[in-house]
Write a structure and sequence with these properties.
- With 424 residues, this protein is an alpha+beta fold.
- Among the domains are: 2-104, Ribosomal protein S3 C-terminal domain (2-Layer Sandwich), CATH 3.30.1140; 271-424, Heat Shock Protein 90, CATH 3.30.565.
- The protein has helices at 2-18, 24-35, 68-71, 97-102, 107-147, 161-228, 234-266, 278-292, 314-331, 377-382, 389-399; strands at residues 43-48, 53-58, 75-81, 87-94, 274-277, 299-303, 309-312, 336-344, 348-355, 404-408, 414-421.
- The strands form three sheets. It has a five-stranded mixed beta sheet with strand order 6-8-9-11-10. Strands 2-1-4-3 form a four-stranded antiparallel beta sheet, with helices on one face. A two-stranded antiparallel ribbon has the order 5-7.
Length: 424
């Protein structure tokens, strides 16, 4: 009977180890049980065989180097090793007069053993239920992950090693799902940007074809008229030739504008920028337009500080300001225009360009920077406009890192407000 109890203790210890159950409660129960029994000086020693260290003991430890033959004459002795060989249990019980007397068959002993087995079984069952909770939750999560597009992330796993591993799996899955969604969003945005770029190109090509037909058709008509009538009066021929020259000039301007806006749209990162004194640039433009007379009876003035230094491309900014001036001269019906610095911060200067003309209807303001947009088509064509001037202005400003808006002034006329980067 005593040997069977020792072997039972060994078996339950190994059983608990292999299932990850804390051995301390069970060994405490064994110690209390034997303290209250007739079996004195029971020894239980649990060893970690990897480093040959004693990890649990009841009574005097049984040394690993103790020979079994030395123990058997005086002790009941039992030994058991786990399947992985990492844990070994040694138990021994000395022969005593009390023990020998107690070895006689007694039903009480069987009752105690049965009770002991029931208690151990209940402990094992409860431990198994606790461990199986993580497994069940993980199984539920795996099932949902394969059938549902959105997952409940509030899985409450037990606070043990298996629970922590399970929670990490859920977190990893959710992070991966979020990353895939973000990648799909970025991919869709890239596709949308590509499609929008293609749409703009198709629209621009269509508009260019439409805009080029008019001057080309007019030029062809005048030349055909001259060619078909060798006897045409000299003054009529001279009139047709001047009209043809006007349309050719318009056609050249349009091609130049198309080239400029294409270069701004496709190669913004390749535009060479440098430190530039904006006062000197505007002063040069003012002198040029005064000598050329391109603004007719209008006057142009500016209020720019002498030390206003920006980062930009001189040629593109010259074309930008010139386009604003020519646009005002052609369509504003005003008498004066002005460019001045109105604000600044650590990064940008803010400028306004305005005239005292008639302005435009509020419904036209959102479209003024569109390519080939004209408020009065007939008047715009007679003025020789290409419909690309303000589109070039907007592209140029944005390629310099700034922004531009347009409003009607309370005093009359249009006002363009734009920013350009300062030299730090």
């Amino acid at each position: 009977m005593a040997k069977q109890q020792l072997e039972f203790v060994n078996k339950r210890v190994i059983f608990g180890y292999e299932r990850g159950i804390d051995l301390k409660p069970f060994l405490k129960f064994v110690n209390e049980y034997f303290d209250q029994s007739v079996y004195d000086e029971v020894r239980v020693s649990v060893y970690d065989m990897n480093n040959r260290q004693l990890i649990h003991a009841i009574g005097e430890p049984i040394k690993l180097n103790k020979k079994e033959a030395d123990l058997r004459p005086n002790f009941f002795y039992s030994k058991r090793v786990s399947k992985d060989g990492k844990v070994a249990v040694y138990t021994a019980m000395p022969y005593t007069v009390t023990l020998i007397e107690a070895l006689a068959p007694d039903r009480t002993v069987w009752v105690i053993i049965l009770a002991f087995a029931i208690i151990v079984t209940i402990i094992a069952f409860i431990s198994t239920l606790y461990l199986s909770k993580s497994v069940k939750l993980l199984h539920k999560f795996a099932k949902h992950a394969t059938t549902e597009s959105t997952l409940d992330t509030n899985y409450r796993f037990p606070k043990d090693e298996l629970g922590e591993v399970s929670q990490q799996i859920v977190t990893l899955f959710n992070n991966m799902t979020n990353a895939i969604e973000e990648r799909e969003k970025a991919h869709n945005m890239a596709l949308a940007a590509i499609e929008e770029k293609s749409r703009i190109k198709r629209e621009l090509t269509s508009n260019i074809n439409h805009e080029l037909k008019t001057p080309v058709g007019i030029i062809k008509g005048y030349i055909d008229s001259i060619a078909d009538d060798p006897e045409m009066p000299a003054d009529t021929r001279e009139h047709f030739i001047k009209k043809t020259q006007t349309q050719i000039t318009r056609l050249c301007n349009m091609l130049n504008d198309i080239s400029t806006i294409t270069r701004l749209s496709e190669a913004s990162t390749e535009i060479n920028k440098q430190e530039l004194n904006f006062f000197n640039l505007i002063n040069t433009i003012a002198n040029d337009i005064k000598e050329s007379g391109v603004i007719n009876e209008m006057t142009f003035s500016f209020g720019i500080p002498h030390n206003c230094t920006i980062i930009g491309n001189p040629s593109i900014l010259n074309s930008t300001i010139t386009n604003l001036i020519k646009n005002s001269a052609a369509y504003s019906r005003g008498t004066k225009m002005r460019l001045e610095l109105c604000d600044e911060d650590d990064t940008f200067y803010t400028f306004v360009f305005y005239d005292n003309g008639t302005g435009v209807g509020e419904e036209h303001l959102p479209n003024l920077f569109d390519r080939f947009y004209r408020i009065d088509t007939g008047r715009s064509r007679r003025a020789g406009g290409t419909g690309l001037g303000l589109a070039i202005v907007q592209s140029a400003i944005k390629n310099h890192g700034g922004d531009i808006t347009v409003t009607n002034r309370h005093e009359g006329g249009l006002q363009f407000q734009f920013t350009l980067p300062k030299v730090k």
